[in-house]
Amino acid sequence: MRLRDMAAPPGFDSAAEIKRVKNWLLVTCACFLLFFAFSFFDNLGSLLSEELFVRWSDSRVMPLFSELTVLPRLCFLPMPCALVWLLVRNISYFRSSKSYYTMKRLPNRWEYPLRCALLPVGGALALFVSVNLLLLLMGGLYLWATPPELQPLGAKRDILELILGGAFA
Predict the structure, then answer these.
(1) pTM over cut 0.90
(2) CA distance 169 to 165
(3) Side-chain half-sphere of 149: how many Cα atoms within 13 Å?
């Protein structure tokens, strides 16, 4: 049996379930990028336009990366909730609407729990990887697009602490 067929319990269309989780992940990442872009370019634009008219003092700098990503990181919250809903739906599907004896006919007794949990766990891993990659990408954009004189002290350290969770920073 192919892994794609194991992504959903019997009775569900595995390709449609995979497409649903993929779309959830794409929408979540797109919302993060959109909210971060608005926040970042709004702050950068106000600092650069202020510099054109009045010579700014050293006290006006760009906010830290972790401060800019507070609201955009909330975009990632619905995805774990949707994955938990998917797991609960998969587990309770055969207990409420279908005969439990259908599951007894499966050749491997661990096949049903695996089929119920494979897509939600895989989606959670994909979300974790994409969150860290997006934070790394946006951190690079933050350092590249912000002029060095407008970067706050410890900007690189702040990005590393946010991405790595303070483990190595």
Answers:
(1) no
(2) 8
(3) 7
Q: What are the φ/ψ torsions at residue 124 (nearest 5 degrees)? A: -65, -40
Q: Residues for the chain: how many in total?
A: 169
Number of helices followed by number of strands (H, E) in the chain: 7, 0
Distance CA 6, CA 11 (A): 11
**Tens-digit pLDDT string for the chain (169 aa):** 577 777 777 778 888 899 999 999 999 999 999 999 999 999 888 887 765 555 545 567 788 999 999 999 999 999 999 999 988 888 777 665 554 556 666 677 777 777 788 889 999 999 999 999 999 999 999 999 988 888 888 889 998 888 887 555 4
In sequence order, the 6+-apart residues with CB closer than 8 A to the CB of 60 are 47, 50, 150
- What is the C-alpha to C-alpha distance for residues 87 and 103, in angstroms, rounded to an integer? 17
